[in-house]
Each structure stands twice: as structure tokens, then as C-alpha cells.
């Protein structure tokens, strides 16, 4: 295993694993329900909380403000901590019904909240929820009050001006691009490999079929030659050993005997030798009735 990760390929695999881990983590795969919703929206409503979300989103618009309506009795501080980096650059407000009022928890995610802008963040967290208790049963109206307070804080300089830009995270683009690239490149590679393998297999099969046909033709020609020699043998028995036919027959048989060890091979020269001997055998058969 150590040797593998010391190789160039192993280092590349390790780098890909690290990149994939970073992408999965920073894309919010471990987010809780509040963070997952507020990463790309301005409003979260817990199960059981009645809220017209489209209307609520329109009220907030593109302000750097996110609001979570949690179930009664929820730990608002824990909900704030669970946001992580999902609402960076915004003023988050955690709300939960407490009888006829709201329990409120301001949760600044604005730049410099723990350093030079600590005082501004404290003021924003303290003032953002003023006046919303009168609308505890009308959450959209409560959001309108929050928006008025937010705009006042912007004009006072406690909150920086500007809108919130919500876009899919870079890691998600990387994962999507990697997945698409892997599918396209993998499919192309498989297609080209399969096409090449098919062509190779077809060519090999055609070559084998052609060789089989040639071997069959050679075997057939050799069989015909053998039969011609057998037929000539009966005529040879009636001839004198010094006749021209006998001499030609013995020469033919000797040539055939030299041919036999080579019949296991199939070459153009061998086929030519068989055809030549077959022609001689037929010419010899024509000499003697």
C-alpha cells in the first residue's frame, strides 16, 4: 500500500480523493436542515410552522438577511451554531414561538464580526428583532418588521450595504463537471475501444475463415491427387518397369511421397505443388488406356 501511494498514479489518486473530500464537505453535504435551506434561500420554516415561503422570500428580497422559523422550544443558539458557513456575509435571525411572543436570537455572519466590527454586530443582533412580537401569529408581517429594522441598521452603518448573491458553490460545479466529463470521456473511450475490438475480431474471423477455406481446398486437391495415384497404380502393374509410363509413374509417386510431410501446412507454394502433381497425374492417366 505504501509503495502504491509513493507512485505517480497513487499520488494522483490521493489528490483526487482529497479534492473529492473537500468538495463534498464545502458543498454542504453535512449541513443540518437549517443550514441546507439557508445556503441558497433567505427563509427556513421548521416542519409544523405555517409560512407562505414565496411571499416571505419576496419580502426579504436580496438583502443580507436570513431568517429561520423554528419549532417552539428549539435551542436557537444551537441552530445558529449549526449554520457553519452556509450563511456567511449575512445577518441571521433565529425565531421560535414562545406563547404570544417570539423568542429571538440574532446571529451575525457579517465580515469582521469577531474583530473590528464586533460592536456593530452586537448592535445588529440586539436590534433586528424589535417590534416583531405583535405579529407572532403572522410570520410574513413579522418579516416586514425585520426588513424595516434591517434597513435602519444599514443606514446607521451597523450593517454593510449591498445585496446577497446566492449561487451554487464552486465544489458543486466541480462535481457536476467532473461527473459529466467522466460520463462523456468514459462513454467515448468505451465506444472507441469496443469499435476497435469489434473491427479486430471481425478481421481475425475473416482471416481464420479464409485460412480454413484454403486448407479445405488444399485437402480436397490432395485427396484427388491421392485417388489419381491409386488409379494409376493398377495401370502401373500392367506395364514393364522400363516403359516411359512406369518411369513417369515412379517419378510422380516419389514427388508425392516428398509432398506428404508438408501437407499439414498451407502455403501458396504447397498448393502450387499439389496442382502441378495433379496435372502430371492426369496427363499420365491419359497416356495409357
Give the gist of this structure:
With 289 residues, the chain is α/β, with parallel strands linked by helices. 61% of the residues lie in helices and 9% in strands. It contains ten helices and four strands, in the order αααβαβαββααααα.
User: What is CATH's topology name of the largest domain?
Assistant: Diaminopimelate Epimerase, Chain A, domain 1
Structural class: alpha/beta
Instruction: List unreliable stretches of 5+ residues.
Output: none
Q: Rough shape?
A: rod-shaped
What series of H and E elements makes up the topology? HHHEHEHEEHHHHH
Helix run count: 10
- How much is the radius of gyration in Å? 46 Å
Number of domains: 2
CATH architecture title of the largest domain: Roll
Please list the strands of the largest sheet in the order they lie side by side.
1-2-3-4
What is the average per-residue confidence, as pLDDT, rounded to a whole number? 79
Helical content, roughly? 55-70%
Strand portion, in percent? 5-15%
- Kindly state the number of beta strands: 4
Main beta sheet: strand number and arrangement? 4 strands, mixed
The first-to-last residue Cα distance is: 86 Å
Folded structure, characterized:
By secondary structure, the chain is of the alpha/beta class. The chain has two domains: 32-168, Roll (Diaminopimelate Epimerase, Chain A, domain 1), CATH 3.10.310; 173-287, no CATH class. Helices cover 61% and strands 9% of the residues. It has a four-stranded mixed sheet with strand order 1-2-3-4. Strand 2 (65-70), helix 5 and strand 3 form a beta-alpha-beta unit. Helix 8 (170-236) runs antiparallel to helix 9. The radius of gyration is 46 Å and the shape is rod-shaped. The mean pLDDT is 79.
Amino acid at each position: 500500500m505504501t509503495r502504491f501511494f509513493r507512485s505517480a498514479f497513487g499520488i494522483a489518486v490521493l489528490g483526487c480523493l482529497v479534492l473529492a473530500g473537500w468538495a463534498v464537505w464545502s458543498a454542504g453535504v453535512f449541513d443540518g436542515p437549517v443550514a441546507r435551506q439557508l445556503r441558497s434561500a433567505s427563509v427556513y420554516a421548521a416542519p409544523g410552522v405555517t409560512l407562505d415561503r414565496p411571499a416571505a422570500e419576496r419580502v426579504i428580497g436580496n438583502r443580507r438577511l436570513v431568517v429561520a422559523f423554528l419549532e417552539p422550544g428549539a435551542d436557537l443558539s444551537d441552530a445558529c451554531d449549526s449554520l457553519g458557513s452556509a450563511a456567511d456575509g449575512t445577518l441571521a435571525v433565529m425565531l421560535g414561538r414562545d406563547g404570544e411572543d417570539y423568542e429571538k436570537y440574532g446571529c451575525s455572519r457579517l465580515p469582521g464580526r469577531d474583530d473590528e466590527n464586533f460592536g456593530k454586530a452586537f448592535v445588529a443582533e440586539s436590534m433586528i428583532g424589535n417590534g416583531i412580537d405583535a405579529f407572532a401569529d403572522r410570520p410574513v408581517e413579522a418579516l416586514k418588521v425585520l426588513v424595516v429594522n434591517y434597513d435602519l441598521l444599514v443606514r446607521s452603518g451597523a450593517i454593510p450595504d449591498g445585496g446577497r448573491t446566492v449561487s451554487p458553490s464552486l465544489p458543486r460545479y466541480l462535481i457536476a463537471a467532473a461527473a459529466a466529463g467522466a460520463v462523456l470521456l468514459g462513454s467515448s473511450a468505451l465506444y472507441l475501444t469496443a469499435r476497435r475490438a469489434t473491427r479486430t475480431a471481425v478481421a481475425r474471423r475473416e482471416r481464420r475463415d479464409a485460412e480454413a477455406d484454403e486448407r479445405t481446398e488444399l485437402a480436397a486437391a490432395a485427396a484427388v491427387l491421392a485417388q489419381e495415384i491409386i488409379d494409376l497404380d493398377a495401370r502401373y502393374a500392367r506395364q514393364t518397369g522400363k516403359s516411359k509410363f512406369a518411369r513417369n509413374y515412379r517419378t510422380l509417386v516419389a514427388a508425392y511421397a516428398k509432398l506428404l510431410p508438408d501437407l499439414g501446412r498451407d502455403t501458396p507454394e504447397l498448393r502450387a505443388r499439389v496442382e502441378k502433381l495433379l496435372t502430371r497425374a492426369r496427363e499420365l492417366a491419359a497416356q495409357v488406356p
